[in-house]
Amino acid sequence: MQNRKLSAWVDEVADQTRPDRVVFCDGSEAENRTLIQGMLSDGTLLALDGERYPNCYLHRSDPTDVARTEHLTFICTRDKEDAGPTNNWMSPDEASQRVGRLFDGAMKGRTMFVVPYLMGPVGSPSAKVGIEITDSPYVVASMRIMTRMGRVALDALGSSEDFCRGLHSLGDLSPERRFVCHFPAERLIWSVGSGYGGNALLGKKCFALRIASTMARDEGWFAEHMLILGLEDPGGRVTYVCAAFPSACGKTNLAMLVPPASQKGWKVWTVGDDIAWLRIGRDGRLWAINPEAGFFGVAPGTSSRTNPNALATLARNSIFTNVALTPEGTPWWEGFDGPVPPVLTDWRGRRWTPDSKEPAAHPNSRFTAPARQCPSISTEFDAAAGVPISAIVFGGRRARLAPLVCEARGWAHGVYLGATMASETTAAATGKVGVVRRDPMAMRPFCGYNMADYFRHWIELGENRAAFPKIFHVNWFRQSEAGALLWPGFGENLRVLRWIVARVRGEAKGHDTPVGIMPTDGELDTSGLGVNDEAMRELFAIDRDAWLEEARDREAFLESFGSRMPEALLRQNRDLMARIRA
Ligand SMILES: Nc1nc2c(ncn2[C@@H]2O[C@H](COP(=O)(O)OP(=O)(O)OP(=O)(O)O)[C@@H](O)[C@H]2O)c(=O)[nH]1
Ligand SMILES: O=C([O-])CC(=O)C(=O)O
Ligand SMILES: [Mn+2]
């Protein structure tokens, strides 16, 4: 190997972890076939029906290891304040003692894989190299789908010392010895005791968000938990939009949206479904690339009604994790097409019938599929410069309060809308589901530094930049008093995207409200939608008492960061209170 820093690190890790063999992954077809064969023979993977799902496999994870574990995820800076109140912190010394030692001899009897990967399109100035060392062949096969892996990454690296190191071991899979540690100063990640996606595929949340967000702070760009899509109008003009929704709140679905029949001539092109790296272009606009090459998508709820593009994408060369299995050897999950099968094998391998009390697929079961297989993949997916962004959309899952759509009054107000976002928790992370929590910019679990500094970075980067995107907030999940969803969502979300793009182009007037700019009567196309006027009113209703309570809660949240919180955001909150009271 020509790269000296890399070979020195590989030697050091092998000395510590004591694997039986070391394999340098080249990402080739042949290498992948060998890996898959190995996993089929030891039961790590099950082959699915080869006619209907060619080259597709099912993986069942340890039942205690099915989602990200935020309470076991740490930012290891010297100073605790630099991690901030939303992160768990561990000093680098303590991490060495408590976590570093778990790697001693951890790979005995196993193969150590060295996985070079590239985050971003080949040749893009925004692309970055990572190296993951892992003892999990499932991780290697998944990284091959999720990133540009192997030779291509080593070529991009050359002899450079500029790469992110990630060390991963399954350890003994015990939750007591499970840790995900980040050392931003060294661009280093340690993950032990979990084989689950967000904990183990280190290019994704660990590098592309937690480590990259600290690089972005230092270098003047953004690393965000955002989808990227292009909305093409009937005239063929494409407008690019980024959207940040918390985990399992609709990014994949919006990124692959198929317009309903009523929306003739409109088309959505998918650039990314989870992560965006955004840089200021020479033209002063924000340009986005998707650092990933695949989708690690939520399975439950995915059907030909809700997301036909996802179904087409995952039909070949895909790995399914913790879904149910039909007797025909095809994957199944709650919300799948057609009637519920009379008998299934559940995600843990047990017999399941519709009388069973638990869901057949784990609520956080996922598919890992190559992005290029997506029917709506954008022609700009591999574009080195990325795509120019005209709108940034924040959104959460909120049964009450948040309107269907509103627009910020300017950049600082937009940053405030993102910073005070809240959403109900989902099965994407272990813990209680359905609890409203603040999840600023959908980055609470993924920001690698103090979020007050992160807000400052957002405010400063966009100040006085006329060509920057407009900012919006959406909520597909508002409910009636009776608890029914008011908005049909999925393909119909196109109507909201259309209003957003009309605003960006100066083609819609909107009207001011205390919480932001909303569509004026007639601007949101509701023809053939099947939502009655009363429900449409409820979707935009502003309950002043509830909003005052919300503003007080936001104030407490912003103040919990102490003196590092930018005054501009506290001012935005005071202004909101004043407008509600007026
Ligand atoms: N009611 C409703 N549900 C939606 C909508 N969009 C997505 N969902 C559901 O929300 C769940 C998660 O959606 P995804 O699109 O996979 O979420 P994501 O934001 O990509 O999630 P991560 O991969 O965890 O970051 C799925 O069960 C979807 O069916 C919508 O517009 N309305
Ligand atoms: O990383 C994961 O495990 C899946 C994901 O996108 C998220 O949780 O936001
Ligand atoms: Mn995500």
From TrEMBL:
Q: Where in the cell is it found?
A: Cytoplasm
- Region annotated Disordered sits at 350-370
Specify one Pfam family.
PEPCK_GTP
Spell out the Gene3D superfamilies in the cross-references: 3.90.228.20, Phosphoenolpyruvate Carboxykinase, domain 1, Phosphoenolpyruvate Carboxykinase, domain 2
Q: HAMAP family this protein is in?
A: PEPCK_GTP
Q: Which family does it belong to?
A: Belongs to the phosphoenolpyruvate carboxykinase [GTP] family.
Question: Which PANTHER family does this one have?
Answer: PHOSPHOENOLPYRUVATE CARBOXYKINASE (PTHR11561), PHOSPHOENOLPYRUVATE CARBOXYKINASE [GTP]-RELATED (PTHR11561:SF0)
* Stated name of the protein: Phosphoenolpyruvate carboxykinase [GTP]
The opening ranks of the lineage are: Bacteria, Pseudomonadati, Myxococcota, Polyangia, Polyangiales
